[in-house]
Each structure stands twice: as structure tokens, then as C-alpha cells.
Hints:
- By secondary structure, this protein is an alpha/beta fold.
- It is 37% helix and 15% strand.
- It is built from 14 helices and 15 strands.
- Helix 2 packs antiparallel against helix 10, helix 11 runs parallel beside helix 14 (413-430) and helix 13 crosses helix 14.
Amino acid sequence: MAGAALGSATASLVERAERLFPGGVNSPVRAFRAVGRPPLVLERGDGPYVWDADGRRYLDYVGAWGPAILGHAHPRVIEAIRAATAKGLALGTTNPLEVELGEAIQAAMPSIERLRFTSSGTEAVMSALRLARAATGRDLIVKFAGGYHGHSDGLLVDAGSGVATLAIAGSAGVPDAVAATTIVLPYNDLSAVGLAFAEHAGRIAAVIVEPVAANTGVIAPAPGFLDHLRETTRADGALLVFDEVITGFRLGLGGAQGRFGIRPDLTTLGKIIGGGMPIGAYGGRADLMELVAPAGPVYQAGTLSGHPLSMAAGVATLAELTADRYLALEDDASDLAAGLADAAAAAGCPVAVARAGPLLTVFFRPTLPNDAAEALASDRAAYARFFGSMLDQGVFLPPSQFEAWFPSMAHGPTEVASTTGAARVAFYASAE
């Protein structure tokens, strides 16, 4: 059985980690508690595969939680990092690679007229919302239930008691006064958006949204939902912020905004733009970004922002993202989704396979969810059994029912066939 067998190198490393880190990990989902399995300790990756500390190989659909769109250890990305390393690490001033990556992002996403690099997506979102408040002179932020925008205090919130009420703290350590600056609405609910803007007219600084929800599993925007957000925010004088940390350069070079034809005021990015290195970015309209220090009064800084290694990896990664490769990736994702649905039907297992471009989730519920509340009604125990069976067969899926699968451009028909073959067994196991 795959996992931390007694006496294995993995088990020893897990034990040592538990003496060092809260829960034995440096990010909660790595603990595998949602699936009831010992956590993996991964040592290396190559293409669509990863290997654990005991040398076991897995076909990987976690993809470092999104950055590995080219697969792991792509030779041109590795060589770019090596070349940058030879010139020194953090140098403390602007580096030519910052300009090169910034221009590549700007060319792909016309809404980003100016941008600022950060070291994480959390930092990017926090900074974008500070900017939105400064630009509008307003305090309130609208987000959608199930949307994850990093772990800054104002976004770790749950919905209040009514549709348009202010939120309550969703994590220990978040002051109620901070949580109360956020309004949490159901995703894909146009009437809830209208109600919130009617009740708080002239007080909402920004709406932040994952244009394709990907943190309660993949949920596509309903027809007209993103257009409604654009129209409503513009009419009220609020800003529209697209959190494209996951969807940026995943749904195509133009991200979700290019795919759906929506121009947000601000965009946050991460993951793919760093090619697997730590990174974040926020950007948008020039008049807004000119409010950021030193050009304007909105302070934000970072010693390691624009780190040369992250910039080098990002430049090399984006250079590989051609139209034909996106088409092949989407075709493979489509075939994978269809194969999984067929395997579930053959096993008599009631699941719904959600797909948005090359993002997908197998929901253990009979119909596709429209929002987080419906997604959370999925059968988590059945997913845990499915996950365990797939892992035992050498397929590494997200260790949570509520995470997206990330097939990469290194996956192909062979890997899709292997995955759907394993799923035929795993769907039967999930029903036991």
C-alpha cells in the first residue's frame, strides 16, 4: 500500500516533521487529514510524475497546486534558473528579468497596464485590496463563499446570517472588526450581488472573485455572472478584482479574463507566472497602479519581490505556453473528464465531473454544484476511498474533495488512459 509504511524513509521523515512543524506540515492540506491517509513526502518530479522518499513513482495531478503547467523539472525552466543563479541571488535592485517577465504578462493580459511583483498570491491579493480601498475611499469588500484568496485576516471569513450581511471571523485570531469589513455572497448568485449593492450602496470598495471557482472544487461561472459583476461594480463606482492566481495562464495566455471577455480593474496572479518558484503579482489600470508607492500613497514593499530566480523561471515558462500546447492540454483534459465519467457510470458510482478548460474536479454527488454550499454536500468519505485507491495504484490526486486537479502539458493520451484505467477500480472501491 502506498503511504508511510512503518520503518520507511517517508514514515521517518513524517515523524521528524511532526516534531518541527504544526501538524507536521508547512501548509495544512499537505497533512492529508481530509483523506485519512499518511502524508506523502515527495523528493523529486519529472514531467507528469513525482517520486516519494521511498522511490515510489506517482502520476501527478496536484502539479504543485497549479504552477507545474509544463510538468515538473522542465529542462528549459531548470536551465534558466541555473543561469540566473550563476549571476547571484537577491541583488536588492531592479533586475532585467523583472522587466522581461512584466512585459510578457502585460502582453498576454491587456487589462494589466501596470503591475507589481510580490512573493506570494496572498501578498498580491492583500495589496490589491488595500489599493482598491485607497482608490475608492471605501472600506467594504465583497467575496464569494468558498473562494480562497490567501490567508490575510479580512479574507478568512464566513458568511454572516443574511445574504448581504457583513461576515464573521472564520479563523481564530481574526478580529471581528476586521471580518466585518467583508461581505460573503453565494457564487453564481446574481440576485445576492444586487441585494448587497443595494444595501451597501456607495460603501463597497471592490468585489474580488475567482472567475472560475477552484477552491471548493472547480465551479464554472454561470452564463452572465461575470458580466453582471462587471456591470454592477462599474455602476456603483466599485472595482472588480479577478483573482487569477489559479486561472491565470492556466485557462489560456489571457487567463479567465481572456477566455470570458471580461476586463477587470485589477488582477492578482501567482503560481504559473513563477514556473514553480515563489511569486505573486497584482496589476491593472494604470491610474490605479500609479497610486502604489513610490508613485503614490499606497504603501507596499517586499525585500524579495521580483526575485531573479522566480523571474527567470517565469520567463522560461511563459515562453513555452503556445496556442497549440494549450489546445493539446485542453483536449487531454476533456478526454480525461469523459473517461472518468464513463468509469464512474460503469461502477454505478454517482459522481459529477466538473471541467473548466484544463481544470477539473470529480465531485462525489450526482449533479454539478453551482456554488460552495452545493459542493460541500459532496460525499467526502467516498472521495477519501477513491483517493486512497488511486494512490495505491500510483495516481496522486489532490488530498481533498474540494481542490482542483491540474493536468499538465507533460500529460498526454498515455497518462490519461492510465488514469481512467485506475479510476475504474477506484470508483468501485469508493462505494464500499
